[in-house]
Amino acid sequence: MKKLSPPPVSLLDRYRGSTFEPVYASKVTVTGGEARHGRASGHVRSDDGELDIALRLPVLMGGEGGGTNPEQLFAAAYGACFHGALSLLATKHGIAIPNHFSVEVEVAFGRDPVDGQHTLTAHVIVRLPGLALTVAEELVRATERICPYAKLVRQGIEGSVRVLV
Fold this sequence. Notes:
Elements: E1 28-31, H1 38-41, E2 43-46, E3 52-54, H2 70-92, E4 102-111, E5 118-127, H3 133-146, H4 148-155
Antiparallel strand pairs: 1-2, 2-3, 4-5
């Protein structure tokens, strides 16, 4: 089996174009399952088949559990991206970080006092044992500026919704 390696530090190079230039795009399809409700009984499958999982409403939301949910998927994606960005930044700047450093992300689904509907919150905890606090804080702040998920949480995302019949 081929040894896994991180992406090149060149991913941190500044882009100077005038329009969005995709580096990678992924597409997933969600179907509703037995309850005809993606969150409660849905199924998620990526176009390449690498992601193929059941969605279930968490027990704390009145569901049966037994599957993952959108908040867990978002937390996993955010955490993986933040971890990777921090690792690349440390490599680029010659900062030795512990092999066992971790990024914990808590995503909560709840009621929005602004419009009475629903919203998400996301909170990140980075554990960098053995690193000087000032160095760790500087590295994490720099990561917040370049991690696409941190940027999404902070400033939003370009998006669209289309209807096909």
